[in-house]
User: What shape does this take?
Amino acid sequence: MHFSEPLPLQSGASLADYTLVYETYGSLNAERSNAVLVCHALNASHHVAGSYEGKPKSEGWWNNMVGPGKPLDTDRFFVIGVNNLGSCFGSTGPMHNNPATGKPYGASFPVVTVEDWVHAQARLADRLGIQKFAAVMGGSLGGMQALAWSMLYPTRIAHSLVIASTPKLSAQNIAFNDVARQAILTDPDYHDGDFYAHGVVPKRGLRVARMIGHITYLSDDDMAEKFGRDLRNAEYQFGYGVDFEIESYLRYQGDKFSEYFDANTYLLITKALDYFDPARAHQGDLSAALANTQAEFLVVSFTTDWRFAPERSREIVQALVNNQRHVTYAEIDAPHGHDAFLLDDARYMSVVRAYYDKVWRQLDVNAAVALGEAA
Amino acid sequence: MHFSEPLPLQSGASLADYTLVYETYGSLNAERSNAVLVCHALNASHHVAGSYEGKPKSEGWWNNMVGPGKPLDTDRFFVIGVNNLGSCFGSTGPMHNNPATGKPYGASFPVVTVEDWVHAQARLADRLGIQKFAAVMGGSLGGMQALAWSMLYPTRIAHSLVIASTPKLSAQNIAFNDVARQAILTDPDYHDGDFYAHGVVPKRGLRVARMIGHITYLSDDDMAEKFGRDLRNAEYQFGYGVDFEIESYLRYQGDKFSEYFDANTYLLITKALDYFDPARAHQGDLSAALANTQAEFLVVSFTTDWRFAPERSREIVQALVNNQRHVTYAEIDAPHGHDAFLLDDARYMSVVRAYYDKVWRQLDVNAAVALGEAA
Assistant: This one.
């Protein structure tokens, strides 16, 4: 979807012209009331569910969650996945030409925030004729978007599903993000963000950035269980190649990531994470920040998530309770750390399924009331 | 101290010729029974205590712990600090010339292990005429050396003080070390370890390595307390300079470290950490590994240390208890994460002081018994 109305950004800059790439699943009902927006995290995209024809390995990143008969059931709901601005999977971002210069934006692409993304998503909803979402849902950075929706467009969202998220990053979270950024920014192939013109990619930096990130997505226990101190060979190698399987795994993840992800996008998105802090405009009072919300909430956290630990979700829950909002909270005892929000876990999936049953029943009741009023 | 007898290493390589730099504090008594060896961790040296003349800022890294009247009281004990092989603070390491080639070892310096260091330290003790240490003490990687001493030279150590340490690194510990190594190894200025010949230093890699390490030395809570989300300027900068104080702090730490630390040493020492696993030769049975120890032990951990958490110290304690060894264990409720072992904490310091009182009383009793036997 192309937009030619300028989008003012939180930084003071604005995007004159931009495109949002999106995918939809299921059908919008006649009342236009069954739309659910799914927001992506750092390295995902609009491709939430299903596979592309002839590409069985192209499964969407939340394919276990979204689809016919799945917890977010596309037989009931019209689901929209949208790629955010600044990303490298189709929507306008640093790899695209800046119409003002005719050259790729590179590092001059404006730093965008969670709130900027939400405003852009709201314009997409306008175009699609969706006045109010049955739900906005996301995990991690996606959960921040779901939370921001409830504050920025309180009348346009019935339910907010905030999974494995946080009301703001901690100093440690920011520290990890900044080390990752420094690895990219100091890679000689970064060329101040204009590496496209040099025909290179700052792969070394991206690779290290991803390795750091990946450690924070997994739990210590999960790593211990999956890899432990397993050796690639029978004996220590006494060199700097691969000794331990965990080294091999992380290097592979880093290599793979550096092949497809844009370095400027990595920088942008980690800044969006760092900047998210809705309580900031309210002297740090999250309850005040959430005072104007009207949605109902599902908040989910995972016990072994040390990136965004359960305590962070409980802050959100407490602030909502302080405002007497409807909030359901599930703390799932899952071993997989932050990544748990993407993985199958029977209890997690059943909590989300049950919540969407409630969302669905409310739509039915609303429809019946509307019919009754019409009659 | 120069050694011309070859030192066989665990890797199968050997060092033909090497020098160990050491410092001593206090006086060796007539019985040669009051010597305490203090072992250093990743980026420290033989300079444990005191300051050099005219350099008031040159305080030793454990100056709060070691000195006249301090918990390890140099009025009572003869304390030795030794710089380990492979380090960059004086003892033979990658920066030194390989006598076989006349050029710096660089990456060809053999990968050394905790056990190799202990054997080298034992030779130094031989030269100094110390048959048995009253105690061997260290924190973190230094604690591994204190533990290894109790296994490799059970009759030459009366007490082992193992602080903020672990019987082996976890997959997550290894992962952080490997990302740090990858940052160095992939820095174009690393030149396969021969950067000395190129007149450069892989500062970018060292800087990122140190930033990663530093995050793991501090606790989440401590970072939150010290830095939180404090901004350098009043508002977000919407760029990749410094926004948050934690970024400024970590970049400064990384810059400083990259000015003085040798990249090959960093690689070597992190491998020594990764490889330490005394239970490995006993099918993972730490109790079996510790079965031949004769020392008494003080084990100390810190509640907020997530690098080597209290659970890891408790494994050591349990294995010692299984062997019916004398072991004192203190779990200090300190906020400073792994770094706590270097910092002042009244409870921590008083535990160590009380333990050395016991060591001292035992020396007295032994001396009296010896006198009695002589009479």
